[in-house]
Each structure stands twice: as C-alpha cells, then as structure tokens.
Amino acid sequence: MTFRPFIPIALVLAHLVLVPGAAPAYADEAPEEMAETVAEAAERCRQGGGTPETANILHSDDLNGDGRPDWIADYGKLVCKNGSNPACNPDGCLFQLYYWSGDDWDKVFEDFVEGYKFSTSGKSRLLHVTTSGLPCNKPAKDHCNYTYRFDKEALTPVR
Fold it and tell me: Which residues touch 57 (CB under 8 Å, ≥6 apart)?
C-alpha cells in the first residue's frame, strides 16, 4: 500500500478559487475581468492614501430574463475612505453589465455614467442611463439620457 498524503478538500477548493485560470467560469461567480477591475480600483484607492470598501460594487441579477444570473458592476459604489474613487471622473463612474452565455461572460454594457435605473415596460426590462453631455455633443456639464432594452443576448438602444 502506498502512502497518499491527506489534502483537505477546503485547500483544493481554495486553490481552484484563488488561482486564476485554474477553474472554469460559472454563472454564480462574478466575471474574472470584473473582479480584476474591482481589485485594481481598490489598489488605486490604497495608493492614493485611502481605505477601499468594495462590498457593494458587484451584484447578480437575471437582467435579460433567460433564467441565468448576470452581473452588474457599479463602481460608483466603491467607497474610498480618506481618498477619492479612482473609478469615477468628472463624466461619471464606471458601470458594467455582463450576461452569462452558458459557458462564458459577455460584456453587454460599459460606460461612465452619472446615474442609472431599471424599469419595465410591458414584458421588457429597461435600463435608463444618464451620462455627461459629451456623448451627445453637448457641453460636459449638460446631460445625455439613454434607454436600453434588455434582450436575450444584448442591450438594444430604445432612444
């Protein structure tokens, strides 16, 4: 009989979670790109002398109604105590949406937004975003308002 060292399952699972690329992506885990952006923003906060709180940036929701979890990253919710939020600029804060395609993540939205909200119209779920005036050829101090419909595989501009 050969001796096999005992390796607790918790160590194996921790290795799979902590080693990039060691485990496949799953819908119940935030996309790796999102997690990396959160970590980068937290590090920039620390470099600026702040203390980051990142717990409220990421959350999951079935955005497109396909029954699978999707991810929302609202970097405006990064708290940088004694510092400034590195994911925000005068045009707003970084906002991202990812759909789960069944085996990978698809980024369906990314922009610097001043605000956003979700609503419904009939059977459609909508995203309303406000940006600085620059994207719609106005002065930066003005605002642009956009509405998107959540379709199964993409966001479709409504107006």
Answer: 38, 41, 73, 74, 75, 77, 78
Tracing tokens 């620390």 back to the chain, one arrives at 46
Give dist(CA 91, CA 9) in Å, integer: 47
* CB 97, CB 109: distance < 8 Å: yes
Task: Answer yes or no: are the C-beta atoms of 42 and 57 closer than 8 Å.
Answer: no
**Contact of 40 with 71, CB cutoff 8 Å:** no
Q: What pTM, to 2 d.p., does this model score?
A: 0.80
Residue pointed to by tokens 């935030």 = 30
Tell me the one-letter amino acid at 10.
Answer: A
CB atoms inside a 10 Å sphere around CB 151: 15
The 10s digit of each residue's pLDDT in 23-75 is: 345 567 888 988 999 999 999 999 999 999 999 999 999 999 999 999 999 99
The one-letter code for the residue type at 83 is G
Residues written for the chain: 159
d(C-alpha 89, C-alpha 109), whole Å: 18
Q: Is 143 left (phi over 0), alpha (psi -120 to 50) or beta?
A: beta
